[in-house]
Design goal:
Radius of gyration: 34 Å
Structural class: mainly alpha
Order of helices and strands: EEHHHH
Number of strands: 2
Number of helices: 4
C-alpha cells in the first residue's frame, strides 16, 4: 500500500494518483527508490573499504613481515651478525690488549639500522 503525502489516504501499490484528493503519488515512489539506491551505493562503498582494510591487515601481519627487524627483511639475521661481530671485536680487543669501547659503535650501528628500516619501509609503501 502507498500512502498519500498530502492527505495520508491509503492507495493501491500501482496507483498513480491519490483516490481521496487526486495528488500524484509518483514523487513518493521516486523518493523511496532514491533511498534504496542510496543504501545500495553506500553498502557497496562500505564493502570496498572493508576489503581494502582486510588487504592492508594481511600485508601488515603477513609471515614475511614477521621476519622483519628494524623494518628490514631478514632483520633477525642482521641482529645475529651484529651480535657476532660485537663478540668477535670484544674477544680480539681482549687478546690484543686493544682499548676499544664498543658502546659508541653499537649506538651508531643501531641508529643506522633504524634509518635503513624507515627508508626501506618508505620505498615499499610507494609501490
Amino acid at each position: 500500500m502507498v500512502y498519500c503525502v498530502k492527505c495520508g489516504a491509503q492507495n493501491e501499490d500501482d496507483a498513480t494518483h491519490c483516490v481521496s484528493c487526486g495528488e500524484p503519488l509518483g514523487v513518493s515512489r521516486r523518493e523511496s527508490r532514491g533511498w534504496e539506491e542510496e543504501i545500495e551505493v553506500r553498502a557497496e562503498e562500505f564493502g570496498e573499504r572493508a576489503e581494502r582494510f582486510g588487504r592492508r591487515m594481511e600485508n601488515e601481519f603477513s609471515p614475511a613481515r614477521a621476519r622483519e627487524c628494524f623494518g628490514l627483511p631478514g632483520g633477525t639475521s642482521i641482529i645475529g651478525v651484529l651480535i657476532g661481530l660485537a663478540i668477535i671485536l670484544w674477544g680480539a680487543s681482549t687478546l690484543m690488549d686493544w682499548n676499544l669501547d664498543l658502546g659508541p659503535y653499537a649506538i651508531i650501528v643501531f641508529g643506522l639500522l633504524i634509518v635503513a628500516g624507515v627508508l626501506y619501509k618508505q620505498s615499499q609503501d610507494k609501490r
